[in-house]
Amino acid sequence: MVRFILRRLLQVIPVFLGTTLLVYYMVFALPGDPIAALFGDRQPPQAVIDTLRSQYHLDEPFWVQYGLFLKNLFTFNLGNDFTGQPIAASLARVFPVTAMLAIEALAIQAIFGVAFGVFAGLRRGGWFDSTVLVASLVVIAVPTFVLGFVFQLVFGVQLGWAKPTVGANADWGSLLLPAVVLGLVSFAYVLRLTRASVSENMNADYVRTATAKGLSRPRVVMAHILRNSLIPVVTYLGANLGGLMGGAIVTEGIFNVPGVGNKLYQAVLRSEGPTIVSIVSVLVLVFVVANLLVDLLYAWLDPRIRYDQ
Fold this sequence. Notes:
Number of strands: 0
Low-confidence stretches: none
Shape: globular
Helix content: over 70%
Largest sheet: none
Strand content: under 5%
Order of helices and strands: HHHHHHHHHHHHH
Mean pLDDT: 78
Radius of gyration: 24 Å
Organism: Arthrobacter nitrophenolicus
Distance between the termini: 8 Å
Number of helices: 13
Protein name: Oligopeptide transport system permease protein
């Protein structure tokens, strides 16, 4: 187990360096002067612009800027953004909000997606199966920003079941509505993936053998069908956790959530390379940890898998 974890951690190094290098280069290649953009329509003295460019190393070549960023990153000193605020403090403020949002969305996907998918898979071809298939296709086809505005209008404004906007004081309750919107599309995929996996495993030889031995229907479903059907679902959920955090820009914008998505959007507008790559680095680590947990869950879901070999 320890050797397996160490191997996975060593695999992170090239992924991490390659991702940060690519993102930093894309930010570096963006047109415009981010220092001049700070002043808007005002024209500051050239000496002020030169001083700020030197302060943030924008007058250095690309490889020098990237090397300085890696040095600061590995020494846990991310520096300041172009507004003078410490990047680490900004991430510490917005990251927990997006983490709560992503965890709520992931819980909605896992609980309701698996439950609906199992029920539909066990009754394939029935009215419930047909209904959830059509409903999931509708959810997948509708863009997230449309779902966000509809849910905000109906449940937040007209019915008053939830706050239409989150604001600065984000908590689990206020994030429930944006979490539903964020996780709805992935919920449809989890439902369809679970349904297909359950339907396939129902016809497997080991299920027929367990039934022939006289095992009860609930035991066959829980101990055999569901356990084996969850392997592709767990894989998708683990990979989707990082996607939820990185893809929350639209949802956070609609519901005014002060999270990573809003911070990333503002950093892109200002071409703040260190801030953008710092956020991406955190998301890469989230992806790695989530996939590591998924690999460890495989041994529980499938006893044939061993990591101590």
